[in-house]
Amino acid sequence: MITSKNRSHWVKFGVIILGVLFFIFFLDTKFKENEKIARAERLESVHNHMLNQFSFSIDNFAGLVSGMNSFVNLSKELPSAEEFQEFVRIQFRDINRQDSIVVSFIDTAHVFKFSFTPNQMDPANLIGKKVASIRDDKEIKNLNRLLTKDGLHLFPAINLVEGWPGLPLNFRVYRDGKVLGYVAPIIDFKSIIQPIYDDIEYDEFVFLFKNEDGQDFDRQQVYDGTKVYNTSKDTEYYKNFHINSNNFLISKKTYFGYSLTLGTAYKDDFKPDNKFYIILWTSYFAFVILGLVITLQVDRYKRLNDKLAFTNNLLEERQIKINQQNKELIQLNKTKDKFFSIIGHDIKQPLNAIEGLLHLLEDSEIQDPDLKEILVNLNQATGNTVDLLNNLLRWALSQTGEINFNPTNLNLTQLINESLRILKFQADLKQIIIKDSLVENIIFYCDGDMIQTVVRNLVSNAIKYSNEGGIVEVILLKEKTELVLKIKDYGVGMSQKQVDSLFKLDNLTSTLGTKGEMGTGLGLQLAKDFVKKHQGIIIVESSIGNGTTFIVKFPLL
């Protein structure tokens, strides 16, 4: 139930949330306004820098052209084309500049008398041609006015046949009171403005350049409708970015009697930096979530206490059940111990007695061959049952951890010989010869009972599946890092599928020996477990009709 006190808490929380919300809106608006102001100031700074760089480059160019003016007009004689070219070459070499420049001397009839670059004469084959063939009437009129004035005069940017946009800064040739024509030094516009583009800080800006008549020009061409001799395009041309003209900061500058329009703009429209915005709103929502979490935690506190009490009661009930199950488990363990006792004493001992009695009867002089055969079969069946019972008992005890692993230094050769003596009777029943080749007096750190169980089970298995009159080989080798025990028979053998399923508990099957002996595979499983306790492995090699070899490897620790 929500009381008025609880409601007042929520009202206070709501007021705080709204107050913080309005504060965030205020900060966001203020931040965006400041960002716009900073953006405008940066645009103005870059624009002024561009104007200064442009003016600086024009002044440098004018300094070179003034030197040419003095050389041509003040020399004792009018310099030849070669002398003029050498002078220009020295000029550029002295100031260590590599700009593209073409210098032409044109007479009063506007015919090219000579034209050169610092390294080539008449590169565009202009000598003898009239300017009117490449320039319009308006420019011819401007050139005529040039013939009446002293000083340097800037002309509109033009597309040169040399393949680049040039900016002409011309002067007339006036010697001995007579106008001989004019010199037109034209520099590659790219060299004027390139320093701006080379500054990585200005990658986000575009620059606009217009002639006095409003015609655009960039680092690759002049957009005045004349023929363009250059196939390259300036990727930074401002029209490539579709920028609104209102976004440009424009300045008109006059250089040597000619007015140029220069502009600067951002390539992209204004986009507020969302980082501050994201931080604000993230903080706000985090604050809201934190407040909700705290409030909900208070509401959940009682429910958690109730659940805790319920859980404690449930744990008490389960503890009672666990105690009861422990008592039942103790009783089951006692029953299990009694069961093993029955197997080990009440069942195993009578079977051993029967087996001993059958041995006595078999050794007695019984004339009836049928009865003799029955006794042999009974003796064998009883022996198989005792072996099965022993394996079953040992395996069950090993699974419950009740067989202790007690290793000590023992004579492994002696252990194997003792096991083979026990199995001699089983081998004699089938006239099987056990051939042993054992390295003598091998001392091995092992559990003697387990090792003998392994040997008995593997050799017994070899006898079981060997034909009468066959041979079972038992070989013990000592190698550098391990002991190798091989038990090889020449009996019926196994398929690869049978080999793969030998040590799988869920696939144990009863397989008869060559004389009808029973087999479950439990002895092999027990052998594998005991070998594993000694950190060893069992390898099986077999094929049908060619017998089987069990290879047991123990590491020498």
From TrEMBL:
Recorded GO MF terms: ATP binding; phosphorelay response regulator activity; phosphorelay sensor kinase activity; protein kinase activator activity
Q: Write down the SMART domains for this protein, in alphabetical order.
A: HATPase_c, HisKA
Chain ranges passing through the membrane: 9-27, 276-298
Instruction: Provide the GO biological process annotations.
Output: osmosensory signaling via phosphorelay pathway
Q: Which UniProt keywords apply?
A: ATP-binding, Kinase, Membrane, Nucleotide-binding, Transferase, Transmembrane, Transmembrane helix, Two-component regulatory system
Which stretches make up the Histidine kinase domain?
A: 342-557
Report what the protein is called. Answer: histidine kinase
Catalytic activity of the protein? ATP + protein L-histidine = ADP + protein N-phospho-L-histidine
Q: Which domain of life is it from?
A: Bacteria
E.C. number: 2.7.13.3
Per the UniProt entry, what species is this protein from, by scientific name?
Halomarinibacterium sedimenti
